TrEMBL record:
Gene3D superfamilies: Tetratricopeptide repeat domain (1.25.40.10). This is Tetratricopeptide repeat protein. It comes from Lachnotalea glycerini. InterPro entries: TPR-like_helical_dom_sf.
Amino acid sequence: MTGQNKNETKFNQLTLSAQVRELIKSGLYDDCYKIIVEEMMNSPHAPEPHNLMGMILEWQGDHLLAMKHFRASWDLDPSYLPARHNLDVYGSFFSRRMGAYDESDCPALEEKNPYKLEYGENNIGHVARRNTYENQ
């Protein structure tokens, strides 16, 4: 893929996410669904349409299917931040509906290690995930 094609694809994905964002806010889920399914057919290996489909499904209240689409998006491209962000946000018990339509919605990632080493009473170490407040 040439540099121009990559830039054009990136522009198309940003335009798609902006369009879907506006349609979801307007409650036009059927129109969103049609646009995203068409994009899935045109770009079957792109993570963006699956992430956007997950956003629609979350707004409609179909949490299980939304999580499947977020996971499919992440599987297609493990470096795609919105999918990872949505899995974290909507995978918790108390989501605050702060999902990511595209990279601009993702908070800046900190370079700090998200894991820490803890020792039990027998001095055996194990790896544990840090709380979000411990990284600050």
